[in-house]
Amino acid sequence: MRDALGAVQSVLVLGGNSEIALAIVDRLVEGRTRRVVLAVREPDSAQRSVDRLTAVGVDASAIAFDALQPETHAEVLGAVFAEGDIDLVISAFGILGSQPEFDADPMFALRAINANFGGAVTSGLIVADHLRRQGHGTLLMITSIAALRGRADNYVYGSTKAGQDLFAQGLGDALVGSGARVVVVRPGFVHTRMTEGMKPAPFSTTPDKVAEVVVEGLTKGRELIYAPSILRYLFAGLIHAPRLIWRRLGG
Ligand SMILES: NC(=O)c1ccc[n+]([C@@H]2O[C@H](COP(=O)([O-])OP(=O)(O)OC[C@H]3O[C@@H](n4cnc5c(N)ncnc54)[C@H](OP(=O)(O)O)[C@@H]3O)[C@@H](O)[C@H]2O)c1
Q1: For ligand 1, atom 31: residue with the closest CA
Q2: 7: pLDDT strictly greater than 90
Q3: Catalytic, out of 155, 157, 226, 233
Q4: Which residues of 68-80 are buried (b: 16+ CB within 10 A; e: fewer)?
Q5: DSSP structure class, residue 8
Q6: What CATH architecture does domain 10-249 belong to?
Q7: Is residue 5's pLDDT more than 60?
Q8: Ligand 1 atom closest to residue 66's alpha carbon, by position in its atom list
Q9: How far apart are CA 123 and CA 229, in angstroms?
Q10: E strands of 76-122, at which residues?
Q11: What values do phi and psi take at 205, rounded to 5?
């Protein structure tokens, strides 16, 4: 439950090894966050993060969660909320892939769709139901600027994030008046395991910088956060640019 100052006390991370999500958690822990649940495919893989958080006095744990097993989501998430209220759920799991990999293996494309979009929808609907019943709490959905326009070099990933982004926007509107809310985060290129070895895009940033912008946005009650913030202004124009320009960008 948020404390008297409205600060986040409990956090659930779906995709709990995400470098972006862990940077957000680290910032929140510097504040008043005291319970963190990392939902990951292999709980052992999050042990170092659990130990690190426990060492600074956080009630931290890792549980098994697979975005590609939607039939398990109700039970897994229900067990977390049964242990106590959750103030913030960060939906951070994702598969990037590359367009050549998707072209060569359409079943891999389907897995990316099922994880990034399908898993975000099933877990998002279940989380929303719990937050609605609590009467408070935020679902922070990490989408991407790749969601904004189709590009030749990443249109499978981009379309999964577009579906996730649109879902999150609609869910946010559906929750108005319930006390719960949805915040959409659209990062640009972030230096994490996901982008290792890739050529950085303009305005590339770090998980820590994303976390700074996100926590500031949460504090200010924003519904939509770009990271870095300059992308909001850049894309206000770029999103309407002719396809010819986008063809060149996606070369
Ligand atoms: N990095 C960027 O440039 C960038 C830009 C825009 C948006 N994003 C989005 O930001 C989010 C976090 O990415 P990140 O940069 O922090 O990368 P990351 O550190 O690689 O985190 C992605 C996480 O997704 C998890 N995951 C993959 N498939 C899963 C599944 N089926 N079930 C549960 N978890 C699964 C991975 O878990 P394991 O630890 O088990 O592998 C990994 O921890 C993603 O949604 C990504 O699409 C990233």
Answers
A1: 67
A2: no
A3: 157
A4: eebeebeebbeeb
A5: -
A6: 3-Layer(aba) Sandwich (3.40)
A7: no
A8: 32
A9: 27
A10: 88-91
A11: -145, -175
**Ligand 1 geometric centre to CA of 244 (Å):** 31
| CA 64 remoteness from chain centre | 17
Alpha carbons 180 and 182: distance in angstroms, whole number: 7
Tell me which of 85 and 5 has the higher pLDDT: 85
Q: In what order do the strands lie in the sheet with 59-64?
A: 59-64, 35-40, 10-14, 88-91, 137-142, 180-187, 224-227
User: Is the pTM higher than 0.90?
Assistant: yes
Distance CA 175, CA 184 (A): 14
Predicted confidence at residue 162, as pLDDT, reads: 98
Q: What is the pLDDT of residue 249?
A: 81
Ligand 1 midpoint to CA 4 (Å): 33
- Residue 251 pLDDT > 90, yes or no? no
Extract the tokens encoding 193. 């395991």
Parallel/antiparallel/unpaired status of strands 88-91 and 137-142: parallel
Does residue 155 have an active-site annotation?
A: no
Q: 192 CB under 6 A from ligand 1? A: yes
Mean pLDDT in residue range 225-233: 96
- pLDDT tens by residue, 182-222: 999 999 999 999 999 999 999 999 999 999 999 999 999 99
Closest ligand 1 atom, residue 194 Cα: 20
Chain segment 130-180, per-residue pLDDT in tens: 999 999 999 999 999 999 999 999 999 999 999 999 999 999 999 999 999
Amino acid identity, position 8: V
The domain locations on the chain are 10-249
**Phi, psi dihedral angles at 233 (to 5 degrees):** -75, -40
Task: Give the separation between CA 42 and CA 66, rounded to whole angstroms.
Answer: 9
**Do you know the residue count of the chain?**
251
Q: How far apart are CA 171 and CA 87, in angstroms?
A: 17
Facing residues of 11 across strands? 36, 88
